[in-house]
Amino acid sequence: MTDADDAYDEPVFQRVIGYAAAADRDVVDMVSGHPDWEPPTALREGLRTYADGDPPEFQYPPSEGLRGLREEIAARRNVERSRVVVTNGAGEANYLAMARAIERDVGSEFLLTDPVYPYYPGKAELLDADATRVPVREDGHVDVDAMRAAASDETAAVVLNTPNNPTGAVYDRESVAALADVASEVDALLVVDEVYDHFDFSGEFESALTLDRDNVVVTTAFSKSMGITGLRVGYAVFPEHLIEGALTRHTLVNVATSRPAQAAVANALKETPPSYYESVRDTLRERIDSFTDALDDAGAAYTTPEGAFYVLARFEDFPGTMANVERLIDEAGVAGMPGEVFGDAYGEWIRFSLCTDRADEAADRLAAYFEGR
User: Alpha-carbon distance 200 to 72, whole Å?
Assistant: First the structure.
């Protein structure tokens, strides 16, 4: 049995990808959230322009991030520029936020949802902290009452991801506000990872920054929204009293975030029209609809995401174990992620990423495979 707490010791994503790559047949990769769509035209233009810059433009940027990029982010998020730290993707932003929670010396426990993206408990382990997973409601939404019951003086932070990976749930503003209250009652932080904020199909998403609380940290990245996971540009918005410590850790670990990548993202933010993001959402809506239609043919139960681009599927007598994921690769030619790696709540399920234009083909393969079993 693969446990989410083992994610730091054993990178399960890489294990599945490696197994699929070594297969002796064609495999549709639905493992990771690597976008297959084009980045914004203005991003490519920004990179080309940067390549022609003078030597000073190829030196260290400010540790906190390029001023122009931070100003653009601050204006869009309606916060002071001083609260923004540009990071190496959302992964580092989450790490900095969780580290600041531990550094406050008010607790050594993180409250996480179950299911949870496995790198959160991995980061908890890295920070020598405990990770307590609280099952979500049956509809995939966060269980505020259960979180409140689990919170204690040992809680350093409540960590959320909305729109959620892997359930696709979009947590409503009321629930997020209630969890900010829960965190405040035990002198903890609320850390909200909003990396999928551009992929809200429900129309219900509201950033936790709208709460304007001094115990809320919001993290995100441009990796998914612009289809540039390899450029590693993310950011965290901290309350003013937490900025100094976060920036110190960021500087000591990374010095700074890639200057050309930041410059390209800044150009893309200024020049990319809303239609770019809507077009990507339309593509994903179509993929979700056709993929879930085929899952109906396969007799599977499944989640219909309100946000992000993952579908969880449960097949009769076929739990979401690593062994069964390997079986699907070998026998159906489709690679997904075992539900057990995300925790116990969806341990019977398998997660599929819709970041491939072969999603229809994968769904047909799954339908044929389970019809023939």
Answer: 22
CA-based Rg of the chain, rounded to a whole angstrom?
A: 20
Domains in the chain with CATH codes: 4-38+275-371 (3.90.1150.10), 41-271 (3.40.640.10)
DSSP string of 86-98, one letter each residue: EESHHHHHHHHHH
Q: CA-CA distance, 38 to 201, in Å (whole number)?
A: 20
Q: Nearest to residue 159, comparing CAs of 131, 135, 178?
A: 131
Reduced to 3 states (helix: H, G, I; strand: E, B; else coil), residue 234 is: strand
Which amino acid type is present at position 30? M
For every one of its 373 residues, what pLDDT tens digit does the chain have, with 9 covering 90 and above?
344 444 444 578 889 999 999 999 999 999 989 999 999 999 999 999 999 999 999 999 999 999 999 999 999 999 999 999 999 999 999 999 999 999 999 999 999 999 999 999 999 999 999 999 999 999 999 999 999 999 999 999 999 999 999 999 999 999 999 999 999 999 999 999 999 999 999 999 999 999 999 999 999 999 999 999 999 999 999 999 999 999 999 999 999 999 999 999 999 999 999 999 999 999 999 999 999 998 988 889 999 999 999 999 999 999 999 999 999 999 999 999 999 999 999 999 999 999 999 999 999 999 999 987 7
Beta bridge partners of 187: none
Helix axes 322-331, 12-21, angle to 10 degrees: 20
With H, G, I as helix, E, B as strand and everything else as coil, classify residue 248: helix
